[in-house]
Amino acid sequence: MSKKENKDILKSEITELKGKLLALQQPLRAAKLPVIVLVEGWASAGKGSLIRELISDIDPRFFNVVSPKIEPEESRRYPALYPYALSIPENGQIIFYDSGWMEEAVRKYIHRDITKDEYKARIRTVNEFERQLRDGGYILVKLFLDIDRDEQARRMNALRDNYETEWRVTNEDMWQCKEYKLFRETYTEFMDKTDGAAKWHVLDGGDRRTAIRDAFKIIVSSIEEAIENGKYVGKPFEEDFPLKEMPLLKDVDLSPTIDDEEYKKELKKLQEKLKVLHNVVYRKRIPVVICYEGWDAAGKGGNIRRITKSLDPRGYDVKPIASPEPHELNRQYLWRFWNRLPRSGHIAIFDRTWYGRVMVERLEGFCSELDWKRAYNEINEFERQLTDWGAVVIKFWIHIDQDTQLARFTDRQNTPEKQWKLTDEDWRNREKWPQYEIAVNDMLQKTSTKNAPWHIIESNDKKYARIKTLKIVVDALEKACKNKKL
User: Fold this and answer.
1) CATH no. of 7-229
2) pTM, whole model, 2 decimals?
3) Where in the chain is the domain with CATH 3.40.50.300?
4) Helix-strand-coil percent breakdown of the chain, rounded to 5?
5) 249-483 classified as CATH 3.40.50.300
6) C-alpha span between 198 and 195 (Å, rounded)
């Protein structure tokens, strides 16, 4: 806790800092720098009033305030970091979190809503999330508003004694005050273990004006430094993920076929199984993410149709991924996939995925070399967060050879009702087949983790490919349903 300071001097400093933050809005926007201010702290420490001061002079078009604590029940059917990942700001804008990932994790841990191992995993995912944001150019400022137990109790009692403000003190808040020592130890541990990509700043909540002045100082200096130095670009970070050995594409035998009679019999049997499993998946609240990548004309669309034919349309979505829209380009690249995740009990089928980062974006120069090299590890972390949440993640590479692709392109070109499927970009991509093959091999070798392995689907015979993917989906869902208790 800091010593009491002169009120007039503090007032003057705050006024000056407000002016600086106001003046930084346009340079911040011009530099396309997104800012996240996480305001954590004790109940009744003054987080709300601090945020109110911080935003008082900012153009309301440039900022947003989010209170994840009051997220609806629906958000609980998503991964833990979902509400935070979803609300990250666009380039040039600022977001203020009124409490966030620390408060939620600490309360759940102390409540025993999550186990010690789950709490450790939560800390790990927070570090991953913060590092990915920083490496993607985000300015992340983390503030903790601190007060002692006596001050907290005094403020809570004052609020409860007033009919107009008693609603602001919840049973949870009172319980925190009662268990103050335990919360302090856990808060301290959490901050110690998440002080890497972005440092924590502890403010004296016992002196309101001092806390406001210090918060402004930290935010202004962080923005000024970023404007001067430009966007932070992180170097590739590699964690030793357990990987499944994958063959090179050139070594994959594409000769397997299936006759029509066997195909019809297997298709009917597998689709019936999948229909039953979909009900179990819904009842047991198991989220399912099915990812399709592959060569143009490899048969992804027909493959997806054979899966969705068995599913209740209310329980799945197909997510076709095209070039990112401007509001997507202005955020960290995984954002547009976070906001397409299925809620628990539902199935999301991605036709193209986040792997565009290490394929088309890599080869077409839509991101830097550091960006795509960093992405292998970031994607592995993202998928581990999905499987830790309980999701079944199934990834298919639909594989054909160049001769088969050419035959299918020619068929599309010569068939009026299929011509819409063929674009100039398809022909350009075909010319880059060798470069794409190198990129795909890198992707398969570096991201086929034990929790989310790749499946190479031989698709020179489309019917064989459809049966193989259906078998893999059915087997994965049967295993998940067997392991998940109600």
Assistant:
1) 3.40.50.300
2) 0.94
3) 7-229, 249-483
4) 55, 15, 30
5) yes
6) 6
